[in-house]
Design goal:
alpha/beta, nine-stranded mixed beta sheet, two-stranded antiparallel sheet, 18 helices, 11 strands, globular
Length: 450
């Protein structure tokens, strides 16, 4: 396909998507018919067919979800987030990522997680980033460069964590202005969200927030500090009133798994206006490391089943970072679909894998993606043919030992008081117990697929 035809096709798709986002659910049948006529890769057509199946059922939770987003979101925000996410990050971006990956000989990720700062105004128990120095920051020019180099590779989805990223509010707004084709998602504790920042988010249109909570008020405040839950609820109300898209980020532990998996909690998220929820299981890295905080293998299995249930019944998009290995075909980290750059600039495979072989201040993003650590990581993916056991850290800890040794990676934690072998050994009991449950689930999944 020549350049003119490619640009014409992109323009037609872009205009059609703008039209779709400006309509309500009464036009959904017409819009799906239009979309089916567009040229698209096989996997995108499969996604469209799945969407068609759900959206044609006006009683389905997904119809209700789409209706809520289309009706409640500010038109400018809907246009910016919708165009950037569906057109840039997925339709066009994935094609460019695949093309660049073939040229480079290693994976180009769909998303980059980057920490503008280590600083944080809270001191949460068990924070995965709590063993960083809390003083490091990436300057604006470095953040800007990473995003620019990402766009050149087809990456249009940037996640920011920390530390607390909203400590850098003004810089984040500047980045959103300089990169209007990007979606920027902030993992935030929600305590610094004021009217001025909400107004700026609405103006630029391409920022979404994921609020970190641990459950209801008592559970959240127990880990994050008294009054935090109330501040998050106030911030959610501000965003909803402004027509902004937001969600939550939750970490399930041995103490709160049942609460986070409860129908009451998910219904509260829907009632507050959350569009999505990221579910993470507690990983014993960072601050206040405690194996007893880990959800048991039985609790992890329980969470898996509950999220599958809610995907069929609740109008909210829920992701389970570990249990969705079946959907993602194993671990997505190590540059396969995402990587992490901490506030010091160390390029890590994952936010929970605190090792690096290079620093983004010294290399380009392209060079970082081809670093010894990422190559050692990628050549072993998937780490297990059972995609219910995707992780090299908690599900296959012996593999992480191999990766660190082969790549010569250094630890990025402030307190480097544990070798990879020692970490793997302390996770062996958990990984063995989870393996028994996961293997049984996988055998059922394989049997059902035949």
């Amino acid at each position: 396909m020549d350049l003119a035809r490619t640009q014409l096709g992109e323009k037609i798709i872009g205009q059609g998507l703008k039209y779709l986002l400006s309509k309500d659910m009464d036009d959904i049948d017409q819009l799906i018919d239009w979309a089916e006529k567009l040229p698209m890769p096989k996997n995108h057509r499969e996604y469209l067919e799945s969407a068609k199946k759900f959206l044609e059922d006006k009683d389905s939770n997904w119809y209700q979800f789409a209706q809520r987003l289309l009706s409640e979101t500010d038109p400018h925000v809907k246009d910016k987030i919708g165009m950037n996410f569906f057109l840039n990050a997925n339709f066009l971006g994935v094609q460019k990522q695949n093309k660049m990956a073939k040229e480079l000989g290693y994976s180009v990720p769909w998303a980059i997680l980057i920490d503008p700062t280590e600083r944080c105004n809270l001191n949460c128990t068990g924070c995965w980033a709590g063993d960083y120095q809390r003083t490091e920051e990436l300057d604006f020019d470095t953040l800007d460069r990473v995003m620019t180099e990402g766009e050149e590779l087809g990456i249009y989805f940037i996640l920011m964590s920390g530390g607390e990223p909203t400590i850098r509010k003004k810089d984040i707004i500047r980045l959103a202005e300089k990169h209007p084709s990007q979606v920027i998602l902030l993992f935030t504790n929600g305590t610094l969200i004021d009217d001025e920042f909400v107004a700026e988010m609405k103006r630029v249109g391409n920022i979404t927030l994921a609020f970190s909570i641990e459950g209801f008020e008592e559970t959240t405040d127990a880990r994050r500090g008294k009054g935090v839950f109330k501040k998050v609820m106030e911030a959610m109300a501000r965003l909803r009133n402004a027509g902004l898209i937001f969600g939550v980020s939750v970490t399930y532990t041995r103490q709160n798994t049942e609460e986070l998996a409860s129908e009451e909690f998910v219904d509260m998220l829907v009632d507050k206006g959350a569009a999505y929820a990221w579910y993470f299981t507690y990983i014993p890295v960072g601050k206040d490391v405690d194996l007893e905080l880990m959800a048991t293998p039985e609790q992890r299995a329980y969470m898996y089943e509950k999220i599958l249930e809610y995907r069929k019944t609740k109008p909210i998009f829920i992701m389970d970072f570990w249990n969705d290995g079946e959907i993602s075909h194993g671990c997505i980290a190590g540059g396969k679909r995402y990587l992490h750059i901490n506030a010091r600039g160390d390029v890590e495979p994952c936010a929970f894998v605190h090792y690096a072989t290079c620093n983004i201040k010294d290399v380009s993003l392209k060079e970082a993606l081809g670093s010894p650590l990422m190559k050692a990581y990628q050549k072993r993916q998937p780490f297990n043919l059972n995609h219910h056991r995707p992780c090299p850290l908690i599900d296959n800890p012996e593999i992480m030992v191999e990766i660190v040794k082969e790549s010569g990676a250094y630890s990025t934690q402030l307190s480097d008081d544990e070798t990879p072998e020692e970490f793997a050994q302390k996770l062996k009991d958990y990984s063995d117990r989870w393996a028994k449950i996961a293997d049984e689930k996988w055998s059922k999944t394989c049997a059902a697929a035949k």
